[in-house]
Amino acid sequence: MVKKVVISGADAIANAVKLCRPKVLPMYPITPSTLVPERLAEYVFNGELDAEMIHVESEHSAASALYGVYAMGLRSFTATASQGLALMHEILPIISASRFPAVMAVANRTLSGPLNIWNDHSDAMSERDQGWIQLYCESAQEAFDTTIMAYKIAETEKVCLPVMVCIDGFSLSHVYEPLQIEDQEKVDLFLPEYKPHDFLDISSPKSFGAFATPATYFEFKEQYQEAMDESLKIISQVHEEFAKKFGRTYGNGLMELVEMKDAEYALLAVGTAAGTTRVVIEELRKKGKKVGLIKLKTIRPFPVEEIKKACKNLKALGVIDRHVSLGYEGALTIDVKAALKEEKVKVEGFVAGLGGRDIDRKRILFAFEALMQGKKGFWLK
Amino acid sequence: MIFMTKKEIKIGGIQITKGAVISNPGSTKNYKTGEWRTFKPSIDQAKCIKCAKCWMTCPDAAVYKDKEGRFQVNYDYCKGCLLCEKECPVKAISHKVEEK
Q1: What is the distance between the alpha carbons of residues A296 and B87, in angstroms, rounded to a whole number?
Q2: Do A198 and B14 touch (CB under 8 A)?
Q3: Which of A95, A186, A339, A371 is the most exposed place for a label (fewest CB within 10 A)?
Q4: Model confidence pLDDT, tens digit, residues A137-190
Q5: Which pLDDT belongs to residue B1?
Q6: Which residues in chain B are closer than 8 Å to A73, comparing Cβ atoms?
């Protein structure tokens, strides 16, 4: 039976993972993702989830065990944040290069230093080149739905790549929101049992993690890039299928457009910042300003064509960036500028919300005003 | 540099498989690391006392015992580190610079 509850974003992810029936859970708690392993441990202890939990000694081990579980041909899951994700760095590209469809939740938290436990996107954005699909969420319901979709996307034969489900630390992971928890039967129909393409099997021995010389390494990388390109289509398809079965949509799965039809000025925002931007847009629209929002959900693979299409009639686009590539500018701004290099639209980057600084109504309004006055992008402190 | 045409999946006999999985394990032996060698050791069978120190020392297990019980070097895998020469108690192993 469909259950309606009021629950935090991290709890929503734990609930979704339970419905996806992973078999082994190597997890290491770190703020603000701790609630995810906590809840899953409860489910395993209560017998609600038939899985084994591995209490690993670090995130490096959690990622390594995640690799191991997929090498055994079983569905798995882990969650982390910040320094934990950074510690996993070495293993992340190995998981994607092995084409293991792992799913990991990241409760985005900034990287030290100075030491800070609050939200920005510097942890996940720093890992965007490692062959993991990255999906960002705005609400607890979106986090719940995205986790279920993530398994389906990852396990699609043409994709076979790991997926990171990113939720903003505290501003989503710890915020209580109404959530519709779906039936197990319905989720089972949407997400069938996991069938691995290759796994360690005594009756058919195989080598995993073999080395590739300069004669072949290049071609393997090309294979991963092709799978990434392919996943753009699959993400939209899975999202469409999800929408049909569960009746909820998030744009086209890659991005959501708000008031973009006749917009002249727009902001591109990711995660919870998009929620605040929606409110500001409503306000500005009442005053007759033609403003809109592009809520980017999928950052890797980067939906270049969709962004181009969305920005066709814009005069200027501002990017709310929660991560800065030190020595240059906001990392997302760089991507967006590159995507729009042949378009007429002016792109301005607004670095905002670093280390948990609020991106509130006033700041979004400030960014819109700067954009409409033709000002350059700046740090939205 | 090899520029691969689309969907070509074999390079020098190596299959570009999904996830770089090798379905017929043991393929590492096809990679002849002896190609890396600069110094080529050789064993003087007349001096050799068959103590097997070279056999135990070789980090690549490239020293083997032949049918007659003599120790020989497998040049397919000997990288020429010369640890065998250093360890030999009767100086039965010497080396030459190998030019290719």
Answers
A1: 64
A2: no
A3: A186
A4: 999 999 999 999 999 999 999 999 999 999 999 999 999 999 999 999 999 999
A5: 30
A6: none
Interface contact A204-B20, CB threshold 8 A:
no
* Counts for chain A of helices (H) and strands (E), in that order: 13, 15
Considering only residues B10 and A131, tell me which one the structure prediction assigns the higher pLDDT.
A131
Tokens representing residue A231 in the block: 């996943």
Distance of CA A353 to the CA centre of its chain: 18
Bridge partners (DSSP) listed for residue A349 = A319
Residue among A262, A369, A370, A257 nearest A314 (CA): A262
Work out the mean pLDDT of chain A and round it to a whole number.
Answer: 96
Tokens linked to A33: 């993702």
CB contact under 8 A, A208 and B18: no
**pLDDT over 60 (residue B53):** yes
Residue-level pLDDT at B7: 53
ipTM for the predicted complex: 0.77
**Are residues A70 and A100 in contact, defined by beta-carbon separation less than 8 angstroms?**
yes
- Provide the pLDDT for residue B8: 54
Given a cut of 80, is residue B4 above it in pLDDT?
no
CA angle A227, A232, A236 (to 5 degrees): 135
Tokens of A144: 């719940």
Minimal Cβ distance to A206: which of B1, B4, B25:
B25
Q: Collect all residues of chain A within an 8 Å Cβ-Cβ radius of residue B16.
A: 216, 219-220, 223
Q: Tokens 């910042």 label which residue?
A: A273
Which residues from B are below 8 Å from A when comparing CB atoms?
1-2, 4, 11-12, 14, 16, 18-23, 25-28, 31
Chain B residues in contact with A208 by the CB 8 A cut-off are: 19, 21
Query: DSSP class of residue A121?
Result: S
Model confidence, pTM: 0.91
A226: Cβ contacts below 8 Å, ≥ 6 apart: none
- A vs B: CB pairs below 8 A: 58
Inter-axis angle of helices A35-46 and A9-19, nearest 10: 40
Mutate to test the interface with B, among A95, A198, A226 (most CBs of B within 10 A): A198
The residue type of A215 is A
> Nearest CA of chain B to the CA of A302: how many Å?
22
Exposure string over A80-106, b if 16+ CB within 10 A, otherwise e:
bbbbbbbbbeebbbbbbbbbbbbbbbb
Q: What is the pLDDT of residues A243-280, one digit of tens each?
A: 999 999 999 999 999 999 999 999 999 999 999 999 99
Residues from chain B that touch A220, judged by Cβ atoms under 8 A, are 16, 20
Contacting residues of A for B22, CB less than 8 Å apart: 206-207, 210
